[in-house]
Amino acid sequence: MDIEKSLMAVCCWSGTVFDHGNSDMETIIATMVQSGNTKSQIIDHFVNQYGERVLAVPVMAGFNLLAWIAPIIIGIIGIIVWYRYLNISSIGEPVKNEYNDIPNIDQIEQELKEME
Predict the structure, then answer these.
(1) For residue 6, how many other CB atoms are within 10 A of its CB?
(2) pTM
């Protein structure tokens, strides 16, 4: 069962052998287990036949390392952006009174402050 969860079904590549139920691969795996092969030998057999694409979990080496690291980096960047967004002060500096030519501007400003 552990081996079937570790390999993708090669008939359509849409799930693991365990989930999909590829009877051909299940038969080959059962035969190899009965003949005394280890898990790594069986997995190596399928990797040699179909390539690394047959593995349900990519090997953590080379370009595949990006599949392991990228979600972590994107998550950290997302948390930083979210934190910075939440800490932006929505209350800016008070607007300076540059309208000296408007009559009763001080009274208008005072009434606006009282409305807040």
Answers:
(1) 19
(2) 0.51
- Cβ 108 vs Cβ 99: under 8 Å: no
In angstroms, the CA 55 to CA 46 distance is: 9
DSSP class per residue in 75-96:
HHHHHHHHHHHHHS-SS-PPPP
Question: In 9-104, where does DSSP find H-type helix?
Answer: 17-20, 23-34, 39-50, 65-87
pLDDT tens for 17-71 read 777 776 788 888 888 889 998 888 988 888 888 888 788 777 777 777 787 788 9
Is a pLDDT exceeding 60 seen at residue 91?
A: no
Give residue limits of the domains in the chain: 1-57, 60-116
Q: How far apart are CA 15 and CA 11, in angstroms?
A: 10
